[in-house]
Each structure stands twice: as C-alpha cells, then as structure tokens.
Design a protein that fits this description.
With about 290 residues, the chain is of the alpha/beta class. The protein contains nine helices and nine strands. The N and C termini lie far apart (about 35 Å).
C-alpha cells in the first residue's frame, strides 16, 4: 500500500470513528423546513460544527435546538442571504466562534414561477439575486479561509445547489432555470481557481425532492422576500403517493430531504477527496 493510500485509509478510519466531518466547520444556508434542515442535522451527526441560516428566525432556532439536543454543535445566523451585509455577518460569526470554515453549502433558494412572456423584471431579478449573486458573494467573503497555505489545509469544499431545471429547463421557470444553469459554471470556476489550494467545488442538481417547494401550490405555503409574499410550490403538484407512479423517474418515487442531504454529505466528506468541478445529479434516474 502506498504512503498516500495509507494516509487516506487512516484518515477515513478516524473519520468513520468520530464522524466523516469530525472537527470541521460547515455553513449551510437556507430552507430550515426541508433539505437545509436535513443537511444541518446530518452534518452535525457526522461531527461538524454547523452554522445554519434562514430568513425564518423562529424555525432556525428550532433546528439549532434539534442539533444540540442530539449532541451536536450549532450556531444560527438569521437573515436574508441576499442582503448586502449577510456574507460578512455569517462569515464573521462563524470565524469568531469556530476559528475556521471548512465547507459552504449554498442551499438557500425558492421558486417564483411564471410563464416567460408574463415574467416581470422583478420576478427575474429576485431569483437571480438569491440563486446566483448570493452564493457568489458568500464564497467571495469566505475566500481568505479557503485560499490557505499548504500547512494550514484541511478538508475544504464548496457545494452549490442546482436543479434539473437548470440542466434541462422547465416550463414556467425561465428565471429559476436560468439561475440554476449558472451554478455549474460558477462552481467549475471555483474548482479551477481554488484547486491549487486544495479546495474542492461541486454542484448538486436535485430532481424531485419532496419539500414545501415541490408540494402543491394550492396548499398555500408562502414566504416573504423583500417585503413581498411569495407563494411556494408547484401548481397541481401530485401528492407523494401519486408521484410514486411517475414513469419519468426510474425509481418511481420522489426523494426525501434526508436522501438529498446524504448526497451533499458525500461531496463534503473525504470519500469525495478527488471529486471536484462535478455536477452530481440526484434524481432517482430522471433524465437519463
């Protein structure tokens, strides 16, 4: 066995014993109602100190409490990821408490669907702001904690969340599809620029994951963005048991937030130590 393989083997043995992300610090943005919550809980279970954010401060407190009740470490920073001061606030809070940053998971987002010919500028702009500008600004703010000298390097990664809408387009989602299509380009650029510093950058593109964003719009879920109430969900979306019959998904079901989180954990963990610039599709086989 080569010295490098022995080193990796020992690292993984230690990691599995203490958790795949033991001693590491991860920022996870957004949606403490679904995928974001599952990512935060799983990362904490795997030994990471998790910094969570969401626009819903009350829900954020609940998730922080869940993590701590399970024996994990967490810090919550409430706020709008699109706000000009947000990147500095969350990076400063993270470094102040934990002294470093190992991972950023840019998960925050929502849909604001309209047919292309009826989409006003503000509906286009807010989706671009949250899904493209906000991740870029957070990553840029955290740059000093990723572009490190060799002796200071640990496992570090950027994971940006995209969607099959960004890979293939989707009716009624010109804004969302365009924003999510920008993510792989941003991610691959990070992989090329920061690879020499040992930083990995990957995109994860989700298909149908059952959350409030993919539930029926008629259910009435909303969120407030820039002072405006935005209806969440997909018009006429079928319930989970009906979606199981979807012939376009080979596994014949939508995914769960926990399954989505497991894929994110893989990309952040040492198991993906030679994976960078990649777009991992988590779709149940849809689109193949």
């Amino acid at each position: 066995m080569s010295a490098r393989l022995e080193q990796v083997s020992q690292h993984l043995s230690n990691a599995y014993g203490r958790g795949l992300l033991a001693g590491e610090v991860a920022i996870v943005t957004g949606e403490c109602h679904g995928i974001g919550r599952s990512i935060a809980l799983l990362f904490a279970k795997e030994g990471a100190k998790v910094v969570i954010s969401d626009i819903d401060a009350k829900k954020l407190e609940t998730v922080e409490g869940e993590i701590k009740a399970a024996g994990g470490e967490a810090l919550s920073v409430a706020g709008d990821v699109g706000a000009d001061d947000f990147p500095k606030r969350i990076v400063d809070a993270t470094v102040s408490k934990y002294g470093k940053i190992n991972h950023i998971v840019n998960n925050a987002g929502f849909t604001f669907d309209k047919m292309l010919h009826t989409t006003p500028d503000e509906t286009w702009d807010i989706i671009m702001k949250i899904h493209v500008r906000a991740p870029f600004r957070l990553i840029r703010q955290a740059a000093p904690y990723f572009r490190l000298k060799p002796e200071a390097r640990e496992n570090r990664s950027i994971i940006n969340v995209s969607s099959t809408s960004g890979l293939h387009g989707n009716v009624g989602q010109a804004n969302y599809a365009a924003a999510k299509a920008a993510i792989p380009g941003l991610t691959k650029t990070i992989a090329k620029e920061w690879g020499p510093y040992g930083v990995r950058a990957n995109t994860i593109a989700f298909g149908l994951i059952h959350t409030r964003l993919t539930a029926a719009k008629e259910a009435g879920a909303t969120m407030v963005i820039d002072g405006k109430e935005v209806a969440l969900g997909v018009p006429g979306a079928k319930p989970e048991e009906t979606a199981a019959k979807n012939p376009l998904i080979p596994l014949r079901r939508g995914g769960t937030p926990d399954e989505a989180a497991s894929a994110v954990l893989f990309l952040a963990s040492p198991l993906a130590s030679y994976v960078t610039g990649h777009t991992l599709e988590v779709t149940g086989g849809a689109g193949i």
